[in-house]
Amino acid sequence: MPYAGADFYCDLVLSGLATVKAVAEIDEVLAFPHAKPSFVVHIVVVPRRHIPSLVDLGAGGVALLGTVLEVVRDVAARVTAECGKPRVLTSLGSYQDSRRLHFRAYIDEPPRAGTPVARQPPTANRDS
Ligand SMILES: [Zn+2]
């Protein structure tokens, strides 16, 4: 059954209900290939703590943003080296498909097989 909630990353990825293949991981931040990539390379970077958005960082969010951006920078550099220069994006309001702060590093071409930074859809840990 497709996910119908508002925060895929908290509800499924960071809770452990869906398994993702981390491409970068530190205590505060996780980066992984998008579950349903819209692009040939589509990496998502999320703080592990729920932060609503770039303009609503909450207590301690400003300090955490620097750490998140370090991971975004690392991922963007790796994509650049392995696949070509990506776009880096965060969305606000109705543009957020998942209602929390997340960044994407992506190459604006349709998905195709055999991409160097492999996209690895999450695997549900549940049997249902
Ligand atoms: Zn959340």
Report on the structure:
Helices cover 22% and strands 21% of the residues. The chain has a five-stranded antiparallel β-sheet, with helices on one face. Strands 1-7 form a two-stranded antiparallel ribbon. The chain is globular. It is an alpha+beta fold and 128 residues long. The protein has one domain: 2-Layer Sandwich (HIT family, subunit A), CATH 3.30.428. Bound molecules: zinc ion. Zinc ion binds next to loops.
Radius of gyration using CA atoms only: 14 Å
Strand order of the largest sheet: 2-3-4-6-5
E-strand count: 7
* Contiguous uncertain segments of 5+ residues: 118-128
Q: What does the main sheet amount to?
A: 5 strands, antiparallel
- Approximate helicity band: 10-25%
What is the CATH architecture descriptor? 2-Layer Sandwich
Fraction of residues in β-strands? 15-25%
N to C succession of SSEs: HEEEEHEEE
> What is the CATH class?
Alpha Beta
> What do we call the CATH homologous superfamily?
HIT-like
Would you give the CATH topology?
HIT family, subunit A
Bound molecules: zinc ion
Seen as an oligomer or otherwise, the chain set is single chain
Average of per-residue pLDDT values: 87
The total tally of domains equals: 1
General shape: globular
Structural class: alpha+beta
Total of helices: 2
Cα(first) to Cα(last) distance is: 9 Å
